[in-house]
UniProtKB/TrEMBL annotation:
PANTHER family named in the record: CHEMOTAXIS TWO-COMPONENT RESPONSE REGULATOR, STRESS RESPONSE REGULATOR PROTEIN 1
A Pfam entry, by short name: Response_reg
Occurrences of domain Response regulatory (ranges): 4-125
GO BP term, example: phosphorelay signal transduction system
Organism: Bradyrhizobium uaiense
Identification of the protein by name: Response regulator
Alphabetical keyword list: Phosphoprotein
Record PTM 4-aspartylphosphate, positions in chain: 60
């Protein structure tokens, strides 16, 4: 069984950055990373799991169409078992409160602290072992 992390962001360079930061883990097949360029793609991917177990969703807030905050209630309704961490360049108190009220488990600000994110992923991997 493969465990996976879903990253939702409309910026194409995000995939390159994440794959670079987690290349050893991905090469060792500790987990897989999938990428969705929009909230709509993410909602499709969270329901189509196949032989994989989704352990974490990381989502940008500011995206065209449905933004990350609007996507949150739908994700929580479809996959209440999967924590969602929002990523934003604007980590103000109101954004944080809105994200948490809509079901996010946390909020990371850009530039992303990959050490902190690694700890979150390690924690989730430990819970699925």
């Amino acid at each position: 069984m493969t465990v996976r992390v879903l990253v939702v962001d409309d910026e194409e360079d995000v995939e390159v950055l994440f794959r670079q930061q987690f290349r050893r883990d991905l090469r060792a097949q500790r987990f897989a990373m999938e990428f969705a360029g929009s909230a709509a793609q993410a909602l499709t991917r969270i329901t189509d799991t196949g032989e994989q177990t989704l352990i974490l969703i990381l989502s940008d807030i500011n995206m065209p169409g449905m933004n990350g905050l609007d996507m949150l209630p739908e994700v929580r309704a479809r996959r209440p078992d999967v924590p969602v961490i929002m990523i934003t360049a604007y980590g103000d108190a109101e954004t944080r409160r809105t994200a948490l009220d809509r079901g996010a488990k946390g909020l990371l600000t850009k530039p992303i602290d990959f050490g902190q994110l690694r700890q979150v992923i390690e924690s989730r991997l430990g819970q699925t072992a």
